[in-house]
Amino acid sequence: MLVSMNQPQSTMTRMSYWIYLAGIMVSYYFLSTMALYLSKEPGSVAMVWYPNIAAGLLLARLPYRLWPAGLVAVLIPQLGVSLPLPQTLAVNLVFSCTALTNVSLIAYFTKKSNDFEQVYDSPLNYAKALVVIAIVPAAIAATVAATGLFLNGFQNIDKGWIVSFTSLVLGGLTIGAPGIALSHFGFKKCAEELLTTWSLGFIAIAAAVSIYAFLHLAYPFAYLALTLVVAALFTNIITISFAASLCSILITTITSFQLYVPNINDPTKTGILFYLPVMIILIPSVVLSVSQHARTLIMNRLEEQMISTRDALLNMPALLCTIDAGGHAVLASKRFLRIMELDTTELIGYPFSKIVMPESMATYNEEVLDALQKGDLVENVMIKVRSRYGREIYLSVSASFESNGDPNQKVYHLHIQNISEEVRLSEKLMEENELMEITLRSIGDGVVATDNNGNITFINAVAETLLHTSTDVATGKHFNDVIHLYDEQSGKRLDCPVDRVMQEKTVQGIPDFAVLKNINGDTFGIQDSISPITNQKGEVVGTIMVFQDVTETRKISQKMSYLAQHDMLTDLPNRILLMDRINLAIARTKRSAYSFCVVFMDLDNFKTINDTQGHEAGDQLLQIIASRLRKHVRGEDTISRIGGDEFVFVFEGISDSSAVTRICDKVIDDVRQPMIINHKSISVSCSMGAALCPTDGEDSETLMRRADAAMYRAKHTGRNRVCFYSHQIEKVLSRQVALEDDLRAAFKQEEFFLYYQPIVDSDTGEVYATEALCRWKNPKTGEMVPPATFIPVLENIGLISDVGKYILEAACKQMTEWEVQGKELHMSINISARQVADNSFIDSVATTLSNHNLSGTRFIFEITESLLLTNTDQCISVLRKLRSMGIRIAIDDFGCGYSSLSYLKKFPFDVLKIDKQFVQELDSSQQDVIFVKAILDMAKALSLKTVAEGVENEKQARILQNLGCDTLQGFYFSAAESGQQIRARMGHTNNILRFPA
């Protein structure tokens, strides 16, 4: 706005406002007096009213709240000059209202109009400003005046409006030009410009021409117009504004004193017809000056913008270089110069090709320079340049051009990116991708990669062979169209694992018994995992599946799994499978009103038959008995051989003891039927004990124990019968309680001691290690109690961890004694599930080894397969911590339990100990030889050391040696003996075949 160019209103004090209002009053009085004086002279053309425009512009600078005071400052001098005039009070009031209306409108339009901010930016803006402050308020105020005069008896309203409008407009235009300049530039700026010799000279000339031309020349308007146009061309807008205003006032004065008489035929229109040409010659000169000023502003702004643009280009963080049509550098950003290690003088004016390396010169000339000159698009062209100090830099160049219309004056802006790091990373990535592809193609596993839509992007040679396809054929096809996965047991097609990986964004496996079917219909057992491929943002961009052909391994595993759950002699379920069946039945009883019965059966006097007829006859008898027992069970029932001559039935859905009795009587009758073995008739009887669930127990251990107790009661009461568990049998269990008490006392009194059984190298016969075996002699009976009797009881009563600590401590002491005697052996120690579950186990082991200054590498810890079934994650964690201490881990009695390749893969084993049941008949059973060979081959493939337990004769030792078993253990070499006895034996060990039996 106009007022914003001056002193801010907020800085004016209360005193300043009063002074300012006084200034309005004085200026209004002076200008109104001058206007009246000039109009009173004889021959005056018309009244020119100057004070309203001045008062309006000054009032606009005040806040609205002070406008009433400002209008009072106008009204007082207005009344002061009008009351003395010979006219009625009503007419004076009309003129006062007209003045206040004119002043208020000028101030209001000035304050509200947005055009005054850029009043000198264009002639149009200046014209709008004059209309707003001089013409529009004058028209409205003239209407007020004409209406008031008409109401007071003046009949010619048109003449009254024209006279008022002419007077106000002429005064507004005369004072408006310098008023706008003062408001826009301020008093100080205007004074500085006007007081220059140049400005004063032009104002003086204009004034002189005005006076002389109107006094002495025939066409004064022409001379005055020429003078003002010349002044407008050679001075500024401030000078011309004041010069034009001065000329207008001088002309009015000359005509008022009749020094110049206009030649106008119609006296009634003298005023408007005279002043119209005056304004026509005065206003254009001001407008021309405004045009000159606006042009100067535009040029200044353009120059500032060019300088600012140039500075911005030079200092911008981007890389920029501007070249001319000939390819010479004319401008370069500082960052580009810094990267090129150049200063301005070393690049500007020289061809840009100066920095381009020879291998990129053709690319630069053809794809950049020639393309730009042809007007073609240049985008992301890669060129190689060299910095001042020889550093090779890769640049990506895009370009735009700028022209002023002359083709020879075109300049091209090269927008540059330093892509050296990207090129280096790309080359490195290509090398890594090539290496990865070579690796993936050479590994023994099948590899299939997909994109995020599941379409195949890569398959290696192994996958090509298994799928019976090629990379070219498979690439681009969906995973499900090439990889056909089925459930081996149900034959149903498996869901696409790629979809699961993309949804869950985690590694996914496939079912253990998945098979892959290729386009020829061939099936392969596979095990695999499929993983997401993610980018740096964590977004899944594809998947990769790695799989192995485990067809043969799975067959062996399935066979081993079957053998692990079935008795090899009778092909009946063994204890492991039996316990599974019992636990499933117990679960059913907890879900519904369900019951079943567990029946133990033991052959009477079987040991006598075995001793008299031989083991082969005993085995045949067991096979015949097993065949007979199968006939007495239904499809949902179970008949199991759990060892020796012991069998266990599980009769499902039976709650009536009489029904069990009827079945058992039939079994007993069938068992005692004669059998022909080795041309001899042999008869046996059996004793059976039954326990009902849930009546006699609700867990497998209790049911088995009570059925076993009932069976022993049947034996003790005459055999060849069945007995049901009852509370009377608790007396039998009391003996078990007594044993538990004896064991607790034995631990407190340190009655446990260790025997050691050598483990020898199968090639050299040297003692490689000894297995520490816990022994206990019952002080009440003086007899050695078998470990199989008291170890489970120690487990049950929670002493096994404490006894385990004693065993490790005693073993360490023995190893220290042997070291003193010159023998450094490894020690194999059995650990139990309870020890593994003990949170202090690892710390206890570490402390004990440290106390005896023994390395963990001297120890082998043996665990049974049954331990792997309890808390798998904790077990793996404990075993890994033991291995981190150097201790090796052995799986004991391999093959007699849940032997599974998945355990060998999952758990960190170092040693595999083959159960003695596969060794004892190696010299007579080809089936056992095949089975042991399979175990040894598998162990070798998995890089596991092997130990064969239960070697009892030379033939067995030789077979195991020929099969590649690493170490041997058994009575053929030595029974478990004291540490002193073992030390004595070690002095004679040279060859396993001559090792004392």
Automatic annotation (TrEMBL):
Domain PAS: 432-505
CDD domains (UniProt xref): EAL (cd01948), GGDEF (cd01949), PAS (cd00130)
Residues covered by the EAL domain: 736-990
Keywords: Membrane, Transmembrane, Transmembrane helix
Protein's UniProt keywords contain Glycosyltransferase: no
Residues annotated as transmembrane: 17-37, 89-109, 130-154, 160-182, 194-215, 221-251, 272-291
Origin: domain of life: Bacteria
Alphabetized Gene3D superfamilies for the sequence: 3.30.70.270, EAL domain (3.20.20.450), PAS domain (3.30.450.20)
Cofactor dependency: Mg(2+)
GO molecular function: catalytic activity
Signal peptide start-end: none
Domain annotation GGDEF: ranges: 594-727
Record bears the keyword Membrane: yes
Domain PAC as annotated: residue spans: 509-562
Name used for this protein in its record: Putative signal transduction protein containing a membrane domain, an EAL and a GGDEF domain
Source species: Gynuella sunshinyii YC6258
Lineage: Bacteria, Pseudomonadati, Pseudomonadota, Gammaproteobacteria, Oceanospirillales
